[in-house]
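Standup notes
- DV: blocked on the single-chain target, sequence here:
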Amino acid sequence: MADDVFKALADPTRRTILDELTERSGQTLFEICSRLSMKHQLGISRQGVSQHLAVLEAAGLVETRREGRYKFHDLNTAPLRQIAERWVVPHTSGPQERTP
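- DV (later): unblocked, structure below
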């Protein structure tokens, strides 16, 4: 699962999509495309954005829900928390020693 998350985060366009969903979760494909075009001057097709969203969804970073004919995309930060917790070191009062 972590490999999928790192792969998804490796692309700057996908990180920009996540930034937009952080700012306002629950956007449709049309809204995401509009924001990428107007705010970030990214000339990417709807199909291209759909493919990026599919990678993000496969990694668990984006969840979708349908309401009528609309499909909404929501940010899911759980995979990022799982990765961060993997390397969390218990807090100590002093600097940690490194041994070669």
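- Follow-up: The chain has a mean pLDDT of 91.
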